[in-house]
Amino acid sequence: MQKLTKQQLAYNSIDLLTAQIDQGWATMKAVELPANYQKFTNIVVCGMGGSQIGFAMIRQALSKELKISIYINNDYSLPGFVDRKSLIILSSYSGTTEEVLSCAQEVTKKGYHGLIITSNGLLARRISKSLPGIKFATDFNPSQQPRLGLGYSVGIFLSLLNRIKAIKLSKKTFALINLSVADSKDNQTLAKKIAKKMILVVSAEHLAGNAHILSNQINESGKNQAYWANLPELNHHFLESLSFPKGLAQQKMLVLFLESASYSAKIQKRIKVTKQVLKQQGIRTESLKVKTKSDLQDSLSTLQSGSYLCYYISVVNGVDPLDIPWVDYFKKELKK
């Protein structure tokens, strides 16, 4: 059998997003949880990078329906409000993330309700009766990169939220939202327009989490500068920032809007006026648009379309979409 290139591995992982979601859902459904893992007042997700952005995306996509508060914790310790009515999710794709391992130790020491989500490593070894968890298989992520395996955390989290009655998803609804998005030439065309620019990804409402994911993937897969911001917050300061350094934004910046037909009328108007203001200041804009039947499906469709887009940015830039040499170097230096 011919060995796949890194580009092929990356592309195949994107193609398999819905298979990852299905597997994550089924894996969570099969896990036995202690009888007292019910009626939590909040959920705290401890994770970094690709191990937490899927959870943040779901939090935003389901914000109108969620019956529980969700807090994303990117730190070595738990926030002060955590108590025995909190559910602490300890998420690390590799199982070696030091911030998450530190939080896991605190969960055990203080007797909090924790749930480990990992594929391997030291974190997997901590799974026990007192600290339950999931060690998921990664068959549908041939790239083995967390940012291209987000379907696992998405499926697991949706299944968990449904199980603890924080949301209500029927089999029919789940089947509808888990429709695969086919790649298209539009992604290649857009990649050629935005690659090699300083990209600001702008979104709002149920797609707010997607902007974070897309900027992360552009950074890592495309080796291309990208940042993210959300409306309406951006309108209160960013529009005044484009004069200095003189000419930089006009020459190098591009603002990519994640657009949805489901956005509120107020956000739709803000996008229109924001584009006008940017144009008057000489800033280029482009859009990635989705139109589906629900906020959650919008978010999942944007996730997959955005991943294809990032893959093509890596092609335009002529870079390896999987290797992350500077992040790896940084982690190596930290261990010294």
UniProtKB/TrEMBL annotation:
One of its GO terms (biological process) is carbohydrate derivative metabolic process. Residues 30-187 form the SIS domain. Pfam families: bact-PGI_C. Keywords: Isomerase. GO terms for molecular function: carbohydrate derivative binding; glucose-6-phosphate isomerase activity; mannose-6-phosphate isomerase activity. It comes from the Bacteria. InterPro entries: Glu6P/Mann6P_isomerase_C, SIS_dom, SIS_dom_sf. Transmembrane segments: none annotated. Belongs to the PGI/PMI family. This is SIS domain-containing protein.
